[in-house]
Amino acid sequence: xxxxxxxxxxxxxxxxxxxxxxxxxxxxxxxxxxxxxxxxxxxxxxxxxxxxxxxxxxxxxxxxxxxxxxxxxxxxxxxxxxxxxxxxxxxxxxxxxxxxxxxxxxxxxxxxxxxxxxxxxxxxxxxxxxxxxxxxxxxxxxxxxxxxxxxxxxxxxxxxxxxxxxxxxxxxxxxxxxxxxxxxxxxxxxxxxxxxxxxxxxxxxxxxxxxxxxxxxxxxxxxxxxxxxxxxxxxxxxxxxxxxxxxxxxxxxxxxxxxxxxxxxxxxxxxxxxxxxxxxxxxxxxxxxxxxxxxxxxxxxxxxxxxxxxxxxxxxxxxxxxxxxxxxxxxxxxxxxxxxxxxxxxxxxxxxxxxxxxxxxxxxxxxxxxxxxxxxxxxxxxxxxxxxxxxxxxxxxxxxxxx
Length: 403
Known about the structure:
Blueprint: E1 8-10, E2 13-14, E3 18-22, E4 25-29, H1 34-71, H2 77-95, E5 105-108, E6 111-115, H3 117-121, H4 125-128, E7 131-134, E8 141-142, E9 164-168, E10 177-178, E11 193-194, E12 201-202, E13 216-217, E14 224-225, E15 241-244, E16 251-252, E17 263-267, E18 274-275, E19 286-290, E20 297-298, E21 307-312, E22 331-334, H5 337-344, E23 351-358, E24 360-361, E25 371-374, E26 381-383, E27 389-391, E28 400-402
Parallel strand pairs: 6-8, 7-9, 8-10, 10-12, 11-13, 12-14, 14-16, 15-17, 18-20, 19-21, 21-22, 22-23
Antiparallel strand pairs: 1-28, 2-24, 3-4, 5-6, 23-25, 26-27
C-alpha cells in the first residue's frame, strides 16, 4: 500500500503489442519494461564508460600531435613561395592552352568524331597538354571515344599525348547524343557540367572518370543515361550536391553514378520504373531518401556504400538482399504492417520497419500522448524534422510521481 505523502515512481505499461528492443535485449510483452529498462541503464553506463575511455585516448592523441607541431620548425620563405609557384605554373599552362576551331575536328555529317591528327601534330608538347574543348554548333552527336585518350583506335598514339582541360557545350544547341566513352578519362575537365537542351542520350561510360567536380545540370529532354555513364574511380570526388534526374528519364543504366562520392542527394523522376544494380553504389548519398511510387524494383548494391539513414519505400516494390548496405543498414521504412510482413518474409539483412503509433498508460488511469515510433526498433530511435530516424541516447520512458 502506498501511504499518503510518499512519492513512488511507477514504471509505465505499454498497451500495444509490439516488439521492443532496448539496449542489448529484445522482448515481446504487454507488461512492464522495468527489468529491461534497468538492463538498458546498465548497458548505457557501460557504453558511457567506454566513450570516456575513447575520449581520453583521443585527448592524449591530440596532445601528442600538438607536441609534434610545437617541435616543428617555422615555415620557411621557400614554403611561403610555393602557392606563388603553383599560380605561375597555372598561368604558364594557360598561356600554352589552345582551343581547336570547327575545322580542326573530323566531322561526318553532324557527328563530331575526334580532333584531326594533323591538328595535333602541329601542337607543341605544352599545347597538347592544355586543350580547351568547345563543341561547335550544328553537331547532333559526339562520337564514341571522341576525346577518350585511353582507347582511341588509331595506329599511332598521338592522341594519348593530349590532355583536355575544359569542356564548353554552350554552342552545341542541336546536340542529341553523347557517345560511349566520349569523355572517358578526361580527369582534367573540372567545374560544372552543363548539358544543353535537346540532349536525349548519354551513352555508357560517356563521362567515366571525368574530373568534373561542380554541379551537374541535365536537360529535361534527357531520356537515357547508359551504364557507367558518370562512374568514378577512387581517385576522384566527382560531382557535388544533389543530382536531379530529368522527368522524362526512362532508362538509367547500372553503375551510372557509382563512386560519385560528393553526391549527397538524388531526386528521382516519375518516368523511371527501376533502380538498377550499383547505380548509386559508393556515393555520398546521406540522410533521407524517399523512393517514389513509380519505382517498382531496386537492384543489387544499388545503395551499398552510402550514408543513407532512412529510406522510405512505396508499396509493392521489389528489393534484393544487396539493395542496401548490410553492414550499416539504413532504416528501410515500408508503408504498413502488410508490407513489413511481405518484405521480412524474404529479406532479413536489413532494418525493415514501418511507422506506428504507441501509447503509454501508468495503470492508474493516467494516459499519455501517443508517440510515433518504428516497429521492432528501439524506443530511442526518433523521427527528426527532415524525416530522418536517428537514435536519441537521452530518451527515457515517461514516468509519473504520486504522493
